[in-house]
Design a protein that fits this description.
Blueprint (H helix, E strand, L loop, with lengths): L1 E10 L2 E11 L4 E5 L6 H9 L6 E6 L2 E2 L5 H9 L1 E4 L11 H11 L5 H14 L15 H13 L5 E5 L7 H16 L3 E5 L3 H6 L3 E6 L2 E7 H6 L4 H10 L3
The structure holds adenosine-5'-diphosphate and magnesium ion.
């Protein structure tokens, strides 16, 4: 579904992604794991087109994603939903308006059509009763569930999550992970940057381990956690698990 081929990204002198190649198949739940600063967000943002790689190519369903091919590129990007660590909801709009906005502006739906979809997806994340609330009156977990519903309103074929639970209080992490797990169980293709190792192991089917801008290890999630091959992955895992 997504094929990343030999991408490179530099920020000035910093070589943030080094010859990264990766394939995501339909129905995959890929956990992107690695130390802080290893390039996880940069990779996710390059896939989504929030950043442009300096070299290499990204294909969606076998077709090159080329920003110069404006209209096609826009449609390709619309197939991807993105969920940020800090929710990025519009504070001056209600939950329902947040969900409706891109459907109306980008997909040119009528307000009625958009609302119908929004209500259905707010129901799916358990927040139908909050449709008229403003984001500032919601808990962090609720905000993130709204952000997920909002992304789903665009009917994406793949969802990209960048540390969706890292800004949450501990007691709210599970409610968000449960929504993501349900999504995966329903067959959504997902790439998840996460420090939730339990989620990566149990819900994810593959792990991509990045360090210093390079893919060091890529394998099934159970294999990664039970039998990491590289010293860097072993070292990382020994730091994240306290025992
Ligand atoms: P991760 O998400 O794994 O923590 P990032 O992809 O955010 O890592 O960052 C990888 C490296 O690139 C880091 O050293 C970071 O400081 C740098 N970086 C990321 N975005 C930018 C940017 N917009 N400008 C300059 N440096 C950046
Ligand atoms: Mg990051």
């Amino acid at each position: 579904m997504i094929k990343v081929e030999h991408i490179e990204k530099n920020f000035g002198k910093l070589h943030a992604l080094k010859d990264v190649s990766l394939e995501i198949h339909k129905g995959d739940i890929v956990s992107l794991i690695g130390p802080s600063g290893s390039g996880k967000s940069t990779l996710l943002r390059c896939i989504h087109g929030l950043e442009q790689a300096d070299a290499g190519s990204i294909y969606m369903d076998g077709e090159l994603m080329d920003p110069k091919n404006t209209e096609k590129y826009r449609l390709q990007r619309n197939k991807m939903g993105f969920v940020f660590q800090h929710f990025n909801l519009f504070p001056n709009m209600t939950v329902l308006e947040n969900c409706n906005l891109a459907q109306i502006q980008v997909l040119h739906k009528s307000k009625e059509e958009a609302t119908q979809v929004s209500l259905q997806l707010l129901d799916k994340v358990g927040l139908l009763q909050k449709k008229d609330s403003y984001p500032n009156n919601l808990s962090g977990g609720q905000k993130q569930r709204v952000a997920i519903a909002r992304a789903l309103c665009m009917n994406p074929e793949i969802m990209l999550f960048d540390e969706p639970t890292s800004a949450l209080d501990p007691e709210m992490i599970k409610e968000v992970l449960e929504v993501m797990k349900d999504l995966g169980n329903q067959g959504m293709t997902m790439i998840v940057v996460t420090h939730e190792m339990g989620f990566a192991r149990k819900v994810g089917n593959r792990v991509v381990f990045l360090d210093q801008g390079e893919i060091i290890e890529e394998c099934g999630s159970e294999e990664f956690f039970s039998n990491p091959k590289s010293d860097r992955a072993k070292d990382f895992l020994s730091k994240v698990f306290y025992d």
